[in-house]
Amino acid sequence: MPRLNPSRRLWDAALLMDLDRLQRCYAIARDDLLAQRNPQGHWTGELSTSALSTATAVSALQLVVRNDPAQTERLQPLIDGGVRYLTENQNPDGGWGDTDRSYSNIATSMLAVAALTIAGRREELADQIAFAENYIEAHGGIPGLRRRYGKDKTFAVPILTNYALAGLVDWREVSPLPFELACLPQKFYKLMKLPVVSYAIPALVAIGQARYFHRPPWNPLLRGLRAAAANKSLTVLQRMQPASGGYLEAAPLTSFVVMSLASIGQAKNRVAVNGVRFLLDSVRPDGSWPIDTNLANWATTLSINAIAAGGDDVGTLDCLPWVLANQYQETHPFTGADPGGWGWTDLSGSVPDADDTPGAMLAIAHFFHSPNSDNETRRQIATAARNGARWLIDLQNGDGGWPTFCEGWGTQPFDRSGSDLTAHAIRALHVWRDELKELPVDRAVKRGFRYLEKQQRDDGSWLPLWFGNQDQYDDENPIYGTVKVLLAYRDLGRMTTDAARKGARWLAAQQNDDGGFGGGSSVPTLCGGASESSVEETALAVEALLAADKRDISPEILPQAVGWLCQGVEDGSYVNCSPIGFYFSKLWYYEKLYPRVMTVASLGAALQANASVPPAPETVTTSSDH
């Protein structure tokens, strides 16, 4: 098998780093990351609380109470807690952001106003709601919401549905969704060119039914067709609902389903009952809900790969059986995905995807090479890797890139191919190449690189699908995207190609005056630091630039960036996180483990790069010196 994380170093200035300081800071960060494991030996992480999730949950639970008063005693404390969280976390401009570290946006602000209205608090909170409605109006109102999402109805229609359920907008403003199409066999979904993304079928059904119920179509044929499809489409909801009750383990998606069903008299339907159970199980002590339950599998494989980057033997960790057990062995009921992939968590609402699957394949490869693994363990690992590779190759889109969940949908954001996903898939296939001789790996990799070359922007950067920067144009995060692509070029020994050199030059030019990368332009960070840079983006940039061609970056760039990270480790600020994560439909989140994991990966890679540097000529000791 190809070697993992190649230490081939093209940058000669690594010797300028303070090696003792680097080793000390790496050990501190690594030990801290190891200490974040749960009692079962893997990482669970902690996602940010979310005003958006909280608002949708409040609306859903209140509508359940309204339609099933017997639930009042059980649900009213959660409703009150959610309202309290929202009122205490309104931003100074009157709006709400997706997280407590996010700028206000029209979508979350509208959901919060709808929740407070449905909860019957308009009179009590008149000033706060008026302040929020002024913010919404200043940002374009309903037309502004539509501009935010364009042709993608995945999130705009649910928000307007929530608004209509609050009596704040006429149902005519809510686009009807063709919920009857969900009754077709799953394999036909991608052919229907649905107005929502592949993972939003539950919302298509429940919200579509609510819109039909509250404002039936005038056409008698269409009205009859949808009436006939109502019960059958509800069975689709039941089939897709996981054991936890939470679709995708996500409070917003689950809440939209619950509120829609409750509004049409279906509060006692099994889907709604299970959705309420999920909301009860996932509420936090402060009354809020996170955007998703957790990213345990993603956090664990990221942590394994980060620790391995520093040369540590991950075979001493005891989480391999847990990672292997998270691989799907059956067709997934939500997306119809074949067996072989991994999702972001071990919980039942997870779905296999093209970021978590490569992450897991890279992580188990480290165990495969560990001297602590016996032959039977290696056989099990190799079998899992082959199944994962087969799944990835089958998922590849016609354009050569990889989408997140489903091959061939392609018409909506997050269903199209992504540069970050494609680069990750290439790395995973490459590292297992020797074990995959029966699969068309070379063809898949070549197609993937052709896709990446076409996606490179004129300035040399690449954009990711699943990460952003709220201080950048259109919430883009080209640092994250460019780093993830460059790591694929690094792993396959292509850092001297024109595309990689152009990307590295662009990345190097993004360094801030403080030595770090990312963050906002002269905007204080939202995570407690005074620096413009972010821990996550600085760490990512270091990892990629360590492999850059020495002709493309100045010799002082890496010492300054590594020094910035080391300073953060020394003063404890390296654990400050930024909301760089994009969830579905560009919903912001941050994850407690991201800065820790990325710091460990970059400092470990820097250590390995220094270890591969021969001593400078003047320091070499020869026999004539004795």
How would you describe what is shown here?
The protein is mainly α and 626 residues long. It is built from 22 helices and four strands. The strands form two sheets. The protein has a two-stranded antiparallel ribbon with strand order 1-2. A hairpin with a 3-residue loop joins strand 3 and strand 4 (587-589). Helix 4 (106-118) packs antiparallel against helix 5 (126-138).
Q: Topology, please?
A:
Blueprint: H1 19-35, E1 49-50, H2 51-67, H3 72-88, H4 106-118, H5 126-138, H6 141-149, H7 153-165, H8 201-214, H9 220-240, H10 251-263, H11 270-282, E2 289-290, H12 296-309, H13 320-325, H14 356-369, H15 375-395, H16 419-431, H17 441-455, H18 478-491, H19 498-508, H20 535-545, H21 557-571, E3 581-583, E4 587-589, H22 593-611
Antiparallel strand pairs: 1-2, 3-4
